Every structure is written in C-alpha cells, then in structure tokens.
Amino acid sequence: MIRFSLVLGMCFLYILEAFVPNMYISFIFNVAAAAVFFTMVPLLDRKGRIFTLGLFTAGIFIHYAVGDRGMQLIEGITQNMALLAILILAPLLSIPLRREGIIDTVITYLNELKNSPSHTFYGISSFMLTLAPILNMGALRIVHGFVENIRIPSKLLSRSYYVGFTPAVIWSPFFASVGIVLFYLEITYLSYVAFGVVFAILQMAAGMILFRPAGAVETAAALEEETGNAAADKGRKKDLYTLAGFVLGLVLLLIVMEQVSHKSMLLLVSMV
Fold it and tell me: Where, by residue number, does the polypeptide cross the bilayer (predicted)?
C-alpha cells in the first residue's frame, strides 16, 4: 500500500509541477521519485536488481564525470517521468469499463466464437483494436487475463494481439511513441492524427492479410452474419457502442485539451 501511494503521489506531483512550477514542489517531486525508485528495487529478482543498480551506479559516475552536481543527480530519475506516468495511469481507464460490465460483454461474445479460428481471430483483433488506443500496454494484460481460460491456440492468440495492438502505437495519443514524436517535432496532435490513422489502417490491413487463419475469407460473411445476430441483443449492442464512444470521447477530449492548454500530449494523457 505504501508503494502504491508513493507511485500515485509521484504521478500527481508530476502533473502539479507542470501547471504550477515551484521550487518546493519540484524538490518534493524529485524526492518522491527517488523514494519510488529505491522502494521498487527490492521487488526485483536478483538479476534485475544487479542490472538496475548497475545502471544506476554507472549513471552516477557519468553524472559527475560530465561536471553535473548535487540535486541534478535526482532530477535525472525524473527525465522519463512522462513515459512512466502513461504506463502507470493509462491502464486505470479500464476500471469504469469493468464496473459497467462492458468488457465482460465482449469476453462472453469471444467465448461464443472460440470454436471458429477465423471468428476468434477477427473478434480478438477487433476487441484489442478498440481497447489498445486508451489502455496502452494494459490492454494486453486485460484481454489476455480474460481469454487465457478460453483455451485459444497461442499462435492464433499472438497474431490476433499483433493485428489489434500495433496500429494503436502509430496513432493513439495514449502511447509514448506518439507523444515523443509530437514533443520533438513540436507539432499538435490535431496536425498529426490524420497521418497516424492512415498508416495505422495500412498496418492493420497488412496484418489481416498476412496473419488471418486459413479459410478466413470464406468465413468472413458468416462472421458478419453472426455479428449482426448478436447485435440484436440490445444489451450487448449498447455495451459495444458505449465502448466505442468511450474511446472516441477520450481522443476528442485530448484534442480539445491540447488546443486550449497548449501542453504536451504526454502530460495531458497522464491527466486523463
């Protein structure tokens, strides 16, 4: 519980410092980041601790070798805080989806398709394609946590994950890859999103062609028919629309926040 509180406190201080620059807030933030680092080290296995502490020690030598001094050493720990905040906070967006039973609805539907490799491939890919843009790496943990008990072949599962997950890396503002591009090129997400979506569609299409199971073309029509029948269930249809609207709403919210605040997309994603 202490570690969890430290991590959330560190993320809060990161956001607060971005909007209220202050020497004291910055100092507390740096101390909190250092505390999180050292309290997490004991949780690593032996090799992980050796590797992490080895890199940390090397960083100390390099820090003083180039002439830096004092608290700047601790500030080095926070240099990648924007990326860390996204990885920590983005998966929390799954909480309202779980509470409303939306994710359970989709998993139930996937369970009904498990006897058809083609249907399973398209179903999991579509589900991942919807969740990945907002949950980041958390989408993999969430989806796999549900489908691992359905006994889907690992090869089919990995291909479905790839097709559904990788397009989000190109266009979603919830991914550090997109945030870094926006940060270093000093452009807004609104000016980038069209290019990102186009390349994401191309990658998704290539993945569908290369990794679809044998016989997927013949069963595509049957999949559409089953999907249409399932959509007749008002409860399931409502949940699917809610999930799609949730994703679209968050992306639109980020675009508006970026235009109003003129802050980094990495920071805005952490806030959302």
Answer: 50-67, 79-99, 119-140, 161-183, 189-211, 240-257
Of 170, 148, 171, 157, the C-alpha closest to 211 is 157
Instruction: For residue 50, give the 3-state DSSP assignment.
Output: helix
> Which of 26, 28, 25, 29 lies closest to 11 in space, CA to CA?
29
This prediction's pTM: 0.59
Q: Tokens 């979603």 appear where?
A: 172
Q: Give Rg (Cα) of the chain.
A: 22
Q: Return the number of other C-beta atoms located less than 10 Å from residue 119's C-beta.
A: 22
Tell me if residue 38 falls in helix, strand or coil.
Answer: helix
Cα–Cα dist 229/237, whole Å: 10
- DSSP single-letter state for residue 137: T
Burial class (CB in 10 A: 0-12, 13-18, 19+), 108: middle
Those residues whose C-beta lies under 8 Å from the C-beta of residue 160, and which sit 6 or more positions away, are 120, 121, 124, 125, 128
Closest CA to 268 of 191, 174, 184, 186: 174
Whole-number Å distance between alpha carbons of 188 and 192:
7
Q: Give the chain's residues under pLDDT 70.
A: 1, 70-72, 75, 86, 90-91, 93, 138, 145-146, 148-149, 214-237, 265-266, 270, 272
Burial of 12 (0-12, 13-18, 19+ CB in 10 A): middle
CA 79 centroid distance within chain: 20
Tokens read off for 186? 């000093």
